[in-house]
Amino acid sequence: MSVAHKNQQARAAAREKQTADVARRSRWALALRYWLPLATLFFLALALRLYRLDAQPLWLDEGETWRTVTTNHVGTLLVGLFRPTEAYPLFHLVLKVCTRLFGDGEWALRLPSAIAGALAVPALFALGYALRGWVLGWGAALLLLPSPFALWQAQDAKAYSLTLLVAILLALTFVHAGKTQRRSAWLRFAAVAAAAPFTHRLLLFTLVSCALAWALTTEHPRRRWVLVGAGLMGLGIVAALAFSLRYRGASGQFAVLDPLTAGWLTFSQFAVGQGPGTVRKLWLLPFGVLTLLGGLRLAWDISRGRYRASAMLVLVAAAFPALLFAMLLLVQPAYEARYFTIVFPFWLLILAWSLPEIPARLPSPTSRRLPVFGMLACGVFGLIAALLVSSWALYLPTKGLFSGARVKEDYRGAVRELAGRVHPDDLVIVHPDTILPLYDYYAPRVASQPLPQPLTYGWLGRANTDRERELRELDSAIRADLARYKRAWLLIAPDHAAVVDKPKPGDELGLVGLAFQYGDHERRLQCNNPAFSRYVGVWLGCNNMPSVNGAVPQPEVVQPAVFGDALRLRGYTITPFPGGIRPGGTLPLTLFWEPLRSLAGTNYIVFVHLTPVGDPRPLVQLDGPPLEGGLPTTLWTDPGAQLHDDRTLQLPNDLPAGRYQLLLGVYRAEDGERLQVSGTTQPVFNNAVLLGEVELQPGAETP
Q1: Global pTM?
Q2: Domain 557-696 is in which class?
């Protein structure tokens, strides 16, 4: 082999090595410039969306999601994919798998939404990069990262976080397919498009928007047919939604809003996750400025810019569904801000579109390119201000998702209070019946004993009958139900109850709620002061019935005792839950009283102590006015009246099993002086009479 040939081979090998080195450096550069930002954004977004994931209780729609997923088999959920009445059947299938793996706790129910919400951030970065480069990708992704609206959906056991992700993926695969014109790219778009309607039927709007954007930017001879078809399909979807909502009688679930008001509310929700009345309008200014600048820049690019196709897609994907929703609102009340989730990522892209591309050399303020510098500065400052406002909104006192306050309907707190006070022979009414899944979900989780099976009026508002006749039937049903129990509880969600039990002008509650609020007008007694314990979105009320089916309740253990010259105890009843009295559970006790004289002007406090046998030192105590403040003794003005007072002692988890004794006494609230006990054969310890002994069973069950 000649020397020249060897040199030629050496040079070829060197060139191959140099090419390989360049390719390797290019791959590393691509990884650093593209994949590293994607991974960084994902993990940052995931950390934010997992933070305090189970801090908020489940609300109405999440309770319905839990019921759907846990009461249906996989086969039933698969069939639901092809039911037109199912809005997001694919999400239920995903959640079914998640609950099989991780259980059905609040954290597990929200985990798919959190992961989808985290994936949406790098996906939006990739979409922005594909549309107009790094600046748009980073701007849109950074806006989505701490967005209160997106974080709410990501911490909600509903399909809207997944819908957000699929809307972004639809646009991303559509852009890639349009740019590369490769068969594999179009197949990826087809796969996402096929899954989109099963993720949420509203994603059909995004699909139609993609077709419309293509028709507006292509020179294809059939573009006019596509334009007409997209428009007709959009109108058909609106008509189908209006018919479906009216057929199901769902109008009462929504506020009646005109399109302009709905648009303003949606803008505020998109910006800070709150209604416009919650925050000052000044805080919405950065988002308004960015929307205006981005819209102007979009219009410029559509008319003469080099990003015409990209700008058209963003504009159409944001405006076309919004226009169709506006048309729907004109004929059928159907507004909820989350329905606009399919518009949300494209609105963020409009905001980020206000950021111009960064030139190789930034112009000085004195150059002729001052407008470029001004737009860049305005866009950057607007972006920073928007990010600061979004972060602040997350910690907005009493309203922000991360504020530590309850911002979702607090069925957990209401059912926990009920579990700590209810007796097994009490009546529990849950109203409306749509919140029953929340009672069923939290009852075994906050109580160590089975709570009473609730009563609902599920027929109310369901039948097409005369409204006045229906209310008369409801009034009769409530009276008959309450007459059979000595105490009744009402767990009511006023906003949801108003759909089937509409309040009259000036009232907060409908007929069911008013029956408890003004029970004293029907010779019932309040066992709450005030009438309702109010939690976020849900109230808990209680009524004490002096008679049951016309007869005054009597104690199971007749054990008289006299307290001063004021009160006589007739006896007591202990009504344990199934399984007996256990540590970590409750001890339900009913005291039966009779005033010896008018007690007007008095304020006596009743105390019950659980102590070791033979030792008066209390291990558990419960002090409070009769009927838990609902009927203080100053209102006991009828001597000889027979009243019963239901009380519940909450027992610590670490209380050893065994025998204990119950002591009862009465003292004056103003000075704490106990009334002298007389007229009893039971032992008395420091003016506290021994009621009797109770047996605590071992092994409290963990809820």
Answers
A1: 0.89
A2: mainly beta
